[in-house]
Inverse folding.
Protein backbone atom coordinates (compact mmCIF):
# COMPACT_ATOMS: atom_id res chain seq x y z
CA UNK A 1 0.00 0.00 0.00
CA UNK A 2 1.60 3.27 -1.15
CA UNK A 3 0.55 6.65 -2.47
CA UNK A 4 0.88 5.55 -6.12
CA UNK A 5 -1.71 2.87 -5.50
CA UNK A 6 -3.99 5.39 -3.77
CA UNK A 7 -3.60 7.88 -6.63
CA UNK A 8 -4.41 5.17 -9.18
CA UNK A 9 -7.75 4.55 -7.48
CA UNK A 10 -8.35 8.28 -7.10
CA UNK A 11 -7.82 8.67 -10.85
CA UNK A 12 -10.61 6.16 -11.43
CA UNK A 13 -12.85 7.94 -8.91
CA UNK A 14 -12.33 11.30 -10.69
CA UNK A 15 -13.88 9.77 -13.81
CA UNK A 16 -17.10 8.77 -12.01
CA UNK A 17 -19.84 11.39 -11.51
CA UNK A 18 -20.66 11.72 -7.79
CA UNK A 19 -22.33 15.01 -7.04
CA UNK A 20 -24.25 14.94 -3.79
CA UNK A 21 -27.68 13.45 -4.38
CA UNK A 22 -26.58 11.87 -7.68
CA UNK A 23 -24.37 9.03 -6.47
CA UNK A 24 -25.83 6.12 -8.41
CA UNK A 25 -22.73 5.67 -10.56
CA UNK A 26 -20.21 5.83 -7.72
CA UNK A 27 -22.28 3.33 -5.73
CA UNK A 28 -22.25 0.97 -8.70
CA UNK A 29 -18.49 1.54 -9.11
CA UNK A 30 -17.89 0.52 -5.48
CA UNK A 31 -20.11 -2.54 -5.81
CA UNK A 32 -18.27 -3.64 -8.96
CA UNK A 33 -14.92 -3.02 -7.25
CA UNK A 34 -15.94 -5.36 -4.42
CA UNK A 35 -17.14 -8.01 -6.86
CA UNK A 36 -13.93 -7.79 -8.90
CA UNK A 37 -11.82 -8.40 -5.80
CA UNK A 38 -14.07 -11.07 -4.26
CA UNK A 39 -14.90 -8.92 -1.24
CA UNK A 40 -18.16 -9.08 0.70
CA UNK A 41 -20.32 -6.04 0.04
CA UNK A 42 -23.67 -4.75 1.22
CA UNK A 43 -25.61 -1.59 0.44
CA UNK A 44 -28.36 -0.14 2.61
CA UNK A 45 -31.52 1.67 1.54
CA UNK A 46 -29.80 5.07 1.67
CA UNK A 47 -26.99 3.97 -0.64
CA UNK A 48 -24.26 3.55 1.99
CA UNK A 49 -21.84 0.87 0.83
CA UNK A 50 -19.92 -1.42 3.20
CA UNK A 51 -17.09 -3.53 1.77
CA UNK A 52 -15.58 -6.12 4.08
CA UNK A 53 -12.17 -7.76 4.02
CA UNK A 54 -11.58 -10.58 6.47
CA UNK A 55 -8.52 -10.53 8.70
CA UNK A 56 -5.24 -11.99 7.55
CA UNK A 57 -4.78 -15.49 9.08
CA UNK A 58 -2.45 -14.42 11.89
CA UNK A 59 -4.68 -11.46 12.93
CA UNK A 60 -8.11 -13.04 13.42
CA UNK A 61 -8.25 -11.97 17.07
CA UNK A 62 -7.58 -8.30 16.29
CA UNK A 63 -10.37 -5.75 16.75
CA UNK A 64 -12.53 -5.01 13.73
CA UNK A 65 -11.54 -1.65 12.26
CA UNK A 66 -13.88 0.64 10.30
CA UNK A 67 -12.30 2.83 7.60
CA UNK A 68 -14.79 5.52 6.59
CA UNK A 69 -15.20 8.20 3.94
CA UNK A 70 -18.09 9.74 2.01
CA UNK A 71 -18.68 9.01 -1.66
CA UNK A 72 -20.11 12.37 -2.79
CA UNK A 73 -18.33 15.62 -3.65
CA UNK A 74 -19.08 19.33 -3.84
CA UNK A 75 -19.36 20.27 -7.53
CA UNK A 76 -18.24 23.86 -8.09
CA UNK A 77 -16.76 25.43 -11.23
CA UNK A 78 -15.62 28.84 -12.35
CA UNK A 79 -18.11 30.87 -14.35
CA UNK A 80 -17.70 30.47 -18.09
CA UNK A 81 -16.19 26.99 -17.76
CA UNK A 82 -17.81 24.22 -19.80
CA UNK A 83 -17.99 21.25 -17.47
CA UNK A 84 -20.90 18.89 -16.86
CA UNK A 85 -20.45 17.19 -13.49
CA UNK A 86 -23.08 14.61 -14.48
CA UNK A 87 -20.80 13.13 -17.14
CA UNK A 88 -17.44 14.87 -17.48
CA UNK A 89 -14.40 13.53 -15.59
CA UNK A 90 -12.54 15.84 -13.25
CA UNK A 91 -9.40 17.15 -14.94
CA UNK A 92 -6.33 17.71 -12.79
CA UNK A 93 -2.67 18.59 -13.26
CA UNK A 94 0.41 18.31 -11.07
CA UNK A 95 2.15 21.60 -10.30
CA UNK A 96 4.90 22.17 -7.72
CA UNK A 97 4.02 19.05 -5.78
CA UNK A 98 0.24 19.61 -5.80
CA UNK A 99 -2.49 17.79 -7.68
CA UNK A 100 -4.81 20.61 -8.79
CA UNK A 101 -8.16 20.94 -10.55
CA UNK A 102 -7.87 24.53 -11.78
CA UNK A 103 -11.39 25.28 -12.96
CA UNK A 104 -13.48 22.91 -10.84
CA UNK A 105 -13.39 21.25 -7.48
CA UNK A 106 -11.01 18.29 -7.38
CA UNK A 107 -13.07 16.00 -5.16
CA UNK A 108 -10.12 15.01 -2.99
CA UNK A 109 -12.69 15.74 -0.29
CA UNK A 110 -13.38 12.87 0.23
CA UNK A 111 -12.26 10.95 -2.88
CA UNK A 112 -8.74 10.54 -1.58
CA UNK A 113 -10.15 8.87 1.54
CA UNK A 114 -12.15 6.52 -0.67
CA UNK A 115 -9.01 5.69 -2.65
CA UNK A 116 -7.08 4.95 0.56
CA UNK A 117 -9.81 2.54 1.67
CA UNK A 118 -9.68 0.76 -1.69
CA UNK A 119 -5.90 0.51 -1.53
CA UNK A 120 -6.10 -1.03 1.94
CA UNK A 121 -8.73 -3.51 0.77
CA UNK A 122 -6.59 -4.73 -2.14
CA UNK A 123 -3.06 -4.66 -0.70
CA UNK A 124 -1.92 -8.33 -0.49
CA UNK A 125 0.97 -7.50 1.87
CA UNK A 126 -0.95 -5.54 4.51
CA UNK A 127 -1.39 -7.29 7.85
CA UNK A 128 -4.77 -6.40 9.27
CA UNK A 129 -7.72 -7.44 11.34
CA UNK A 130 -11.17 -7.50 9.81
CA UNK A 131 -11.67 -4.29 7.83
CA UNK A 132 -15.07 -2.71 7.27
CA UNK A 133 -14.77 0.00 4.62
CA UNK A 134 -17.79 2.29 4.92
CA UNK A 135 -18.67 4.71 2.10
CA UNK A 136 -21.52 7.03 3.10
CA UNK A 137 -23.69 9.09 0.74
CA UNK A 138 -24.63 12.76 0.55
CA UNK A 139 -22.37 13.94 3.35
CA UNK A 140 -21.92 17.34 1.75
CA UNK A 141 -25.61 18.20 1.57
CA UNK A 142 -26.88 17.03 4.93
CA UNK A 143 -24.98 13.96 6.18
CA UNK A 144 -27.83 11.90 4.76
CA UNK A 145 -25.98 8.60 4.72
CA UNK A 146 -24.78 8.94 8.31
CA UNK A 147 -28.28 9.89 9.45
CA UNK A 148 -29.70 6.78 7.75
CA UNK A 149 -27.06 4.35 9.03
CA UNK A 150 -28.61 1.47 10.96
CA UNK A 151 -27.16 0.53 14.36
CA UNK A 152 -26.62 -3.06 13.12
CA UNK A 153 -24.82 -2.11 9.90
CA UNK A 154 -21.31 -2.09 11.44
CA UNK A 155 -19.57 -4.63 13.63
CA UNK A 156 -16.41 -2.62 14.31
CA UNK A 157 -16.08 -0.25 17.27
CA UNK A 158 -12.87 1.49 16.19
CA UNK A 159 -13.41 3.92 13.35
CA UNK A 160 -10.92 5.97 11.33
CA UNK A 161 -12.60 8.78 9.43
CA UNK A 162 -10.56 9.78 6.36
CA UNK A 163 -12.22 13.14 5.75
CA UNK A 164 -9.63 15.52 7.28
CA UNK A 165 -7.47 17.95 5.36
CA UNK A 166 -4.34 18.69 7.41
CA UNK A 167 -1.53 16.12 7.47
CA UNK A 168 0.11 15.81 10.86
CA UNK A 169 -3.10 16.63 12.70
CA UNK A 170 -5.33 14.12 14.45
CA UNK A 171 -8.92 15.21 14.91
CA UNK A 172 -10.90 14.01 17.90
CA UNK A 173 -13.91 16.35 17.76
CA UNK A 174 -15.97 18.44 15.36
CA UNK A 175 -18.70 21.05 15.23
CA UNK A 176 -22.35 20.29 14.77
CA UNK A 177 -24.41 22.31 12.33
CA UNK A 178 -27.81 23.52 11.18
CA UNK A 179 -29.05 25.19 8.00
CA UNK A 180 -31.29 28.25 8.17
CA UNK A 181 -33.22 29.26 5.05
CA UNK A 182 -35.11 32.51 4.48
CA UNK A 183 -37.60 33.03 1.65
CA UNK A 184 -38.96 36.37 0.45
CA UNK A 185 -42.09 36.53 -1.70
CA UNK A 186 -42.20 39.54 -4.01
CA UNK A 187 -44.65 41.17 -6.35
CA UNK A 188 -43.21 41.62 -9.85
CA UNK A 189 -43.25 45.07 -11.31
CA UNK A 190 -42.49 46.35 -14.78
CA UNK A 191 -39.08 48.06 -15.01
CA UNK A 192 -39.12 51.74 -15.91
CA UNK A 193 -37.82 51.97 -19.48
CA UNK A 194 -36.53 55.49 -18.82
CA UNK A 195 -34.03 54.27 -16.28
CA UNK A 196 -30.53 53.01 -17.07
CA UNK A 197 -29.74 49.44 -16.15
CA UNK A 198 -26.49 47.92 -14.98
CA UNK A 199 -25.16 44.52 -14.01
CA UNK A 200 -22.89 44.79 -10.98
CA UNK A 201 -21.23 42.15 -8.83
CA UNK A 202 -18.13 40.57 -7.37
CA UNK A 203 -16.01 37.71 -8.68
CA UNK A 204 -12.58 36.18 -8.14
CA UNK A 205 -13.02 35.46 -4.45
CA UNK A 206 -11.21 32.46 -3.00
CA UNK A 207 -14.33 31.00 -1.43
CA UNK A 208 -13.61 27.86 0.53
CA UNK A 209 -15.09 25.65 3.21
CA UNK A 210 -17.67 27.42 5.36
CA UNK A 211 -16.28 25.77 8.49
CA UNK A 212 -12.58 25.21 8.04
CA UNK A 213 -11.98 28.53 6.22
CA UNK A 214 -14.47 30.76 8.03
CA UNK A 215 -11.74 32.35 10.19
CA UNK A 216 -9.45 33.24 7.28
CA UNK A 217 -11.14 36.57 6.49
CA UNK A 218 -12.09 35.54 2.98
CA UNK A 219 -14.54 37.73 1.12
CA UNK A 220 -18.17 36.69 0.90
CA UNK A 221 -19.45 37.86 -2.49
CA UNK A 222 -23.09 37.95 -1.36
CA UNK A 223 -22.25 40.09 1.64
CA UNK A 224 -20.03 42.43 -0.40
CA UNK A 225 -22.69 43.01 -3.02
CA UNK A 226 -25.26 43.67 -0.29
CA UNK A 227 -22.97 46.40 1.04
CA UNK A 228 -22.81 48.14 -2.32
CA UNK A 229 -26.56 47.79 -2.89
CA UNK A 230 -27.25 49.29 0.56
CA UNK A 231 -25.32 52.47 -0.28
CA UNK A 232 -26.85 52.80 -3.74
CA UNK A 233 -30.38 52.19 -2.49
CA UNK A 234 -29.94 54.60 0.39
CA UNK A 235 -28.93 57.44 -1.93
CA UNK A 236 -30.68 56.74 -5.21
CA UNK A 237 -33.66 54.42 -4.57
CA UNK A 238 -32.61 51.84 -7.13
CA UNK A 239 -34.79 49.30 -8.92
CA UNK A 240 -33.65 45.73 -8.16
CA UNK A 241 -34.33 43.39 -11.07
CA UNK A 242 -32.14 40.41 -10.17
CA UNK A 243 -29.93 39.26 -7.30
CA UNK A 244 -27.99 36.00 -7.30
CA UNK A 245 -24.85 34.83 -5.55
CA UNK A 246 -23.17 31.90 -3.89
CA UNK A 247 -24.11 28.29 -4.30
CA UNK A 248 -23.62 25.48 -1.78
CA UNK A 249 -24.57 25.98 1.88
CA UNK A 250 -21.15 24.73 3.02
CA UNK A 251 -19.10 26.98 0.73
CA UNK A 252 -18.20 30.65 1.16
CA UNK A 253 -19.77 32.60 -1.71
CA UNK A 254 -17.20 33.44 -4.40
CA UNK A 255 -19.35 35.26 -6.96
CA UNK A 256 -22.46 37.45 -6.98
CA UNK A 257 -24.40 39.60 -9.42
CA UNK A 258 -27.30 42.03 -9.46
CA UNK A 259 -29.15 43.85 -12.20
CA UNK A 260 -30.25 47.28 -11.06
CA UNK A 261 -32.06 50.24 -12.56
CA UNK A 262 -31.15 53.86 -11.75
CA UNK A 263 -32.72 57.18 -12.73
CA UNK A 264 -30.91 58.37 -15.85
CA UNK A 265 -29.98 61.72 -14.34
CA UNK A 266 -27.99 60.12 -11.46
CA UNK A 267 -26.82 56.90 -13.16
CA UNK A 268 -23.22 58.02 -13.78
CA UNK A 269 -22.88 59.38 -10.26
CA UNK A 270 -24.32 56.19 -8.78
CA UNK A 271 -22.04 53.90 -10.75
CA UNK A 272 -19.06 56.02 -9.73
CA UNK A 273 -20.08 55.48 -6.10
CA UNK A 274 -20.42 51.75 -6.69
CA UNK A 275 -16.94 51.63 -8.24
CA UNK A 276 -15.52 53.56 -5.31
CA UNK A 277 -17.09 51.12 -2.84
CA UNK A 278 -15.81 48.21 -4.91
CA UNK A 279 -12.25 49.54 -4.84
CA UNK A 280 -12.47 50.13 -1.09
CA UNK A 281 -13.61 46.55 -0.59
CA UNK A 282 -10.84 45.19 -2.82
CA UNK A 283 -8.33 47.11 -0.70
CA UNK A 284 -9.98 45.74 2.45
CA UNK A 285 -9.25 42.17 1.29
CA UNK A 286 -5.91 42.87 -0.42
CA UNK A 287 -4.07 40.48 1.89
CA UNK A 288 -6.59 37.77 2.75
CA UNK A 289 -8.41 37.52 -0.62
CA UNK A 290 -6.37 39.49 -3.16
CA UNK A 291 -8.16 38.52 -6.38
CA UNK A 292 -11.70 39.54 -5.47
CA UNK A 293 -12.94 42.17 -7.92
CA UNK A 294 -15.95 44.43 -8.32
CA UNK A 295 -17.34 44.69 -11.85
CA UNK A 296 -20.11 46.56 -13.66
CA UNK A 297 -21.48 46.79 -17.18
CA UNK A 298 -24.44 48.28 -19.00
CA UNK A 299 -27.28 45.84 -19.57
CA UNK A 300 -30.88 45.90 -20.83
CA UNK A 301 -33.65 45.69 -18.22
CA UNK A 302 -35.16 42.34 -17.32
CA UNK A 303 -38.80 41.59 -18.05
CA UNK A 304 -39.71 41.96 -14.38
CA UNK A 305 -38.29 43.68 -11.32
CA UNK A 306 -38.73 43.07 -7.59
CA UNK A 307 -41.23 45.40 -5.96
CA UNK A 308 -39.50 48.22 -4.09
CA UNK A 309 -40.79 47.26 -0.66
CA UNK A 310 -39.42 43.72 -0.89
CA UNK A 311 -36.16 44.93 -2.43
CA UNK A 312 -35.63 47.32 0.48
CA UNK A 313 -36.31 44.61 3.06
CA UNK A 314 -34.07 42.14 1.24
CA UNK A 315 -31.12 44.54 1.03
CA UNK A 316 -31.50 45.57 4.67
CA UNK A 317 -31.63 41.97 5.89
CA UNK A 318 -28.57 40.90 3.89
CA UNK A 319 -26.65 43.68 5.59
CA UNK A 320 -28.07 42.94 9.04
CA UNK A 321 -27.52 39.19 9.09
CA UNK A 322 -24.22 37.97 10.53
CA UNK A 323 -21.51 36.19 8.58
CA UNK A 324 -18.26 34.77 9.92
CA UNK A 325 -16.86 33.83 13.33
CA UNK A 326 -19.20 34.47 16.24
CA UNK A 327 -17.15 32.96 19.11
CA UNK A 328 -13.78 31.29 19.67
CA UNK A 329 -13.40 28.29 21.96
CA UNK A 330 -12.39 29.02 25.54
CA UNK A 331 -11.08 25.46 25.93
CA UNK A 332 -9.02 24.81 22.78
CA UNK A 333 -6.72 27.59 21.64
CA UNK A 334 -7.31 28.74 18.08
CA UNK A 335 -10.51 26.72 17.58
CA UNK A 336 -13.54 28.51 16.22
CA UNK A 337 -16.42 27.52 18.44
CA UNK A 338 -19.38 29.15 16.67
CA UNK A 339 -19.83 30.65 13.20
CA UNK A 340 -22.41 31.40 10.54
CA UNK A 341 -22.14 31.41 6.76
CA UNK A 342 -24.27 33.60 4.48
CA UNK A 343 -24.06 31.05 1.71
CA UNK A 344 -26.34 32.08 -1.14
CA UNK A 345 -29.14 34.24 -2.47
CA UNK A 346 -31.13 32.88 -5.41
CA UNK A 347 -34.04 34.12 -7.50
CA UNK A 348 -36.53 31.28 -7.87
CA UNK A 349 -39.74 30.57 -9.82
CA UNK A 350 -43.07 31.84 -8.54
CA UNK A 351 -41.55 35.16 -7.49
CA UNK A 352 -39.50 33.92 -4.57
CA UNK A 353 -36.02 34.80 -3.37
CA UNK A 354 -34.25 32.12 -1.33
CA UNK A 355 -31.37 32.86 1.04
CA UNK A 356 -29.31 29.93 2.31
CA UNK A 357 -27.20 30.09 5.47
CA UNK A 358 -25.55 27.57 7.80
CA UNK A 359 -24.49 27.77 11.43
CA UNK A 360 -21.85 25.65 13.17
CA UNK A 361 -20.78 25.19 16.77
CA UNK A 362 -19.15 22.58 18.95
CA UNK A 363 -21.61 23.69 21.68
CA UNK A 364 -25.24 22.73 21.05
CA UNK A 365 -26.73 25.72 22.85
CA UNK A 366 -24.48 28.15 20.96
CA UNK A 367 -25.41 26.56 17.63
CA UNK A 368 -29.09 26.94 18.47
CA UNK A 369 -28.64 30.59 19.44
CA UNK A 370 -26.65 31.35 16.26
CA UNK A 371 -29.47 29.96 14.15
CA UNK A 372 -32.00 32.01 16.09
CA UNK A 373 -29.97 35.19 15.54
CA UNK A 374 -30.02 34.58 11.79
CA UNK A 375 -33.71 33.77 11.94
CA UNK A 376 -34.45 36.99 13.81
CA UNK A 377 -32.73 39.18 11.19
CA UNK A 378 -34.86 37.72 8.41
CA UNK A 379 -38.10 37.60 10.39
CA UNK A 380 -37.75 41.31 11.08
CA UNK A 381 -37.51 41.82 7.32
CA UNK A 382 -40.70 39.85 6.68
CA UNK A 383 -39.21 36.64 5.32
CA UNK A 384 -40.36 33.10 6.03
CA UNK A 385 -37.63 31.19 7.89
CA UNK A 386 -37.07 27.43 8.25
CA UNK A 387 -34.35 25.26 9.78
CA UNK A 388 -33.19 21.89 8.50
CA UNK A 389 -30.28 19.43 8.30
CA UNK A 390 -29.31 19.72 11.95
CA UNK A 391 -26.57 17.35 13.06
CA UNK A 392 -24.71 16.89 16.36
CA UNK A 393 -21.10 17.64 17.14
CA UNK A 394 -18.48 15.13 18.23
CA UNK A 395 -17.16 15.74 21.74
CA UNK A 396 -13.39 15.16 22.10
CA UNK A 397 -12.27 12.13 24.09
CA UNK A 398 -8.64 12.60 25.17
CA UNK A 399 -8.49 9.15 26.81
CA UNK A 400 -9.16 7.34 23.51
CA UNK A 401 -7.06 4.16 23.01
CA UNK A 402 -7.24 4.71 19.23
CA UNK A 403 -5.84 8.21 19.67
CA UNK A 404 -2.92 6.84 21.67
CA UNK A 405 -2.12 4.27 18.96
CA UNK A 406 -2.28 6.90 16.20
CA UNK A 407 -0.12 9.35 18.17
CA UNK A 408 2.57 6.78 18.93
CA UNK A 409 2.60 5.59 15.33
CA UNK A 410 3.13 9.11 14.05
CA UNK A 411 5.95 9.79 16.50
CA UNK A 412 7.74 6.57 15.57
CA UNK A 413 7.40 7.19 11.85
CA UNK A 414 8.21 10.89 11.64
CA UNK A 415 10.03 11.77 14.87
CA UNK A 416 7.57 14.41 16.08
CA UNK A 417 4.23 14.60 17.80
CA UNK A 418 1.13 15.18 15.73
CA UNK A 419 -1.22 18.02 16.59
CA UNK A 420 -4.34 16.75 18.35
CA UNK A 421 -7.34 19.01 17.95
CA UNK A 422 -10.99 19.42 17.08
CA UNK A 423 -12.22 20.87 13.78
CA UNK A 424 -14.78 23.57 13.08
CA UNK A 425 -16.43 21.56 10.36
CA UNK A 426 -19.03 18.86 10.19
CA UNK A 427 -17.76 15.31 10.25
CA UNK A 428 -20.05 12.33 10.30
CA UNK A 429 -18.50 11.13 13.54
CA UNK A 430 -21.06 12.92 15.70
CA UNK A 431 -23.84 10.91 14.06
CA UNK A 432 -21.88 7.67 14.31
CA UNK A 433 -21.60 8.30 18.03
CA UNK A 434 -25.39 8.59 18.22
CA UNK A 435 -25.78 5.18 16.58
CA UNK A 436 -22.76 3.52 18.25
CA UNK A 437 -22.18 5.17 21.67
CA UNK A 438 -19.16 2.95 22.39
CA UNK A 439 -17.40 3.76 19.10
CA UNK A 440 -13.77 4.93 19.47
CA UNK A 441 -13.04 7.35 16.62
CA UNK A 442 -10.33 9.50 15.09
CA UNK A 443 -10.01 11.44 11.85
CA UNK A 444 -6.90 12.19 9.80
CA UNK A 445 -5.89 12.70 6.19
CA UNK A 446 -3.46 14.39 3.79
CA UNK A 447 -3.24 18.15 3.27
CA UNK A 448 -5.96 19.48 0.95
CA UNK A 449 -6.48 23.17 0.26
CA UNK A 450 -9.26 25.13 -1.44
CA UNK A 451 -11.87 22.56 -0.51
CA UNK A 452 -15.34 23.23 -1.99
CA UNK A 453 -13.95 25.73 -4.51
CA UNK A 454 -12.35 25.58 -7.98
CA UNK A 455 -8.61 25.22 -7.63
CA UNK A 456 -8.94 22.57 -4.89
CA UNK A 457 -5.54 20.89 -4.53
CA UNK A 458 -3.90 17.92 -2.84
CA UNK A 459 -0.36 18.08 -1.43
CA UNK A 460 1.32 14.95 -2.80
CA UNK A 461 4.13 14.91 -0.23
CA UNK A 462 1.54 14.89 2.55
CA UNK A 463 -0.24 12.04 0.78
CA UNK A 464 2.92 9.92 1.11
CA UNK A 465 3.00 10.51 4.86
CA UNK A 466 -0.74 9.97 5.27
CA UNK A 467 -0.61 6.59 3.51
CA UNK A 468 2.44 5.51 5.51
CA UNK A 469 0.73 6.52 8.74
CA UNK A 470 -2.56 4.82 7.89
CA UNK A 471 -0.74 1.62 6.93
CA UNK A 472 1.21 1.58 10.20
CA UNK A 473 -1.93 2.21 12.29
CA UNK A 474 -3.79 -0.64 10.59
CA UNK A 475 -0.88 -3.00 11.21
CA UNK A 476 -0.52 -1.92 14.84
CA UNK A 477 -4.23 -2.54 15.42
CA UNK A 478 -3.82 -5.97 13.83
CA UNK A 479 -1.57 -7.20 16.66
CA UNK A 480 -3.67 -5.95 19.59
Amino acid sequence: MDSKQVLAYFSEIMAVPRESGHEELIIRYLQEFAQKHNLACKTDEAGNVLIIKEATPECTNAPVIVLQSHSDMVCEKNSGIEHDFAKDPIRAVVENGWLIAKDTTLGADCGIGMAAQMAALTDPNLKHGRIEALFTVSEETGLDGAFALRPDFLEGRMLINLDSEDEGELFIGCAGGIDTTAVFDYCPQTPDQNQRYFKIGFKGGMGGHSGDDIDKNRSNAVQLLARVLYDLNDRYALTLCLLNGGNKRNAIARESEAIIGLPAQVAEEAIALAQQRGLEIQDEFATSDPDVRFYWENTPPTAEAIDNNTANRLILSLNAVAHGVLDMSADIKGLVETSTNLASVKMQPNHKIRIGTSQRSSTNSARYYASRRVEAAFLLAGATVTHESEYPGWKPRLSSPLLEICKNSYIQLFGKEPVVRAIHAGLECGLFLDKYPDMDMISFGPTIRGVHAPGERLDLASLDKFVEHLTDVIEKLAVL
Summary: Residues 232 and 453 are 30 Å apart (CA to CA).
